[in-house]
């Protein structure tokens, strides 16, 4: 469903010079699978996900979503995708409900379908009491829920979430995690990036560890524990990163 082959992104930065943010990575994510992308700050998670979301163009390599090449058919690929990142914005003056519905219309949904799906998402994320609140008056947790809802309004086949639970309280993160699990059961292909190893262990079927732009290990949580001979997922992560040098 999601195929990434030898994907590379080099930034030419005036101050820092040449930065290989994503270095020849390959992986696949199937329908009904949650793939965790884990790495330290600056490891290349967001850049990888932005390449998949057609926001950035790869320097080399390819990626496709449901058979659609992200470089050759970016518009069609994008229509299959729900992408949440830290930069996913909300319009301050729109109410939560209006915000979600508006994106439904942008995705080409009929008014009736957009209404129906908006109500569904408001129920899923327990936003009923806030549906008529303007986005700039929402708490950060509710903003995050509305952001997720607006990226999922067209019921995409491919879901990519860049650190969706960052800064959320335990109940709100659980709502997000439950949503992701439900979407998995519905057969979606999901990438979930985080730097919280325990969260990845609970949620993800397979985990890819990214370090200095390279994928240094891929496997189920149990496989990664076996490879590293560690029981605790934080230890697994630290071991893999240390074995691959240059811990920053
Ligand atoms: N537009 C850009 N121009 C230059 N360098 C960039 C650009 N975007 C990202 N980088 C660099 O690429 C590297 C990877 O960054 P990226 O944002 O992908 O990391 P990340 O794993 O998402 O980190 P974090 O956990 O902090 O979100 C970093 O060195 C970053 O500074
Ligand atoms: Mg990031």
Keywords summarizing the entry:
alpha/beta, Rossmann fold, 2 domains, four-stranded antiparallel β-sheet, 248 residues, 38% helix, binds magnesium ion, binds adenosine-5'-triphosphate, six-stranded mixed β-sheet
Structure description:
- This protein has helices at residues 45-52, 74-79, 96-106, 111-124, 140-151, 170-185, 197-203, 221-228, 233-243, and strands at 2-13, 17-29, 33-38, 60-65, 68-69, 81-84, 158-162, 189-194, 206-211, 214-219.
- With 248 residues, it is α/β, with parallel strands linked by helices.
- The strands form two sheets. The protein has a six-stranded mixed β-sheet with strand order 6-7-8-3-9-10, with helices on both faces. It has a four-stranded antiparallel β-sheet with strand order 2-1-4-5.
- A hairpin with a 2-residue loop joins β4 (60-65) and β5 (68-69).
- α3 crosses α4 (111-124), α3 (96-106) runs parallel beside α5 and α8 (221-228) crosses α9 (233-243).
- It is globular.
- The mean pLDDT is 94.
- It binds adenosine-5'-triphosphate and magnesium ion.
- Adenosine-5'-triphosphate (ATP) binds at residues 11, 13, 19, 21, 39, 41-47, 195.
The neighbouring-strand order within the major sheet is 6-7-8-3-9-10
Separation, N- and C-terminal Cα atoms: 33 Å
Largest sheet geometry: 6 strands, mixed
Share of β-strand residues: 25-35%
The number of distinct β-strands equals 10
Bound molecules: adenosine-5'-triphosphate, magnesium ion
Rg estimate, integer Å? 18 Å
Give average pLDDT, whole number. 94
Multimerization status: single chain
CATH topology of the largest domain: Rossmann fold
Return residue spans where pLDDT drops below 50 for at least 5 consecutive residues.
none
Q: Helicity, in percent? A: 25-40%
Q: Indicate how many domains the architecture comprises.
A: 2
What is the helix tally?
Answer: 9
CATH homology group of the largest domain: P-loop containing nucleotide triphosphate hydrolases
Structural class by sheet pairing and helices: alpha/beta
What form results from the Cα inertia axes? globular
> Any guess at the CATH architecture of the largest domain?
3-Layer(aba) Sandwich
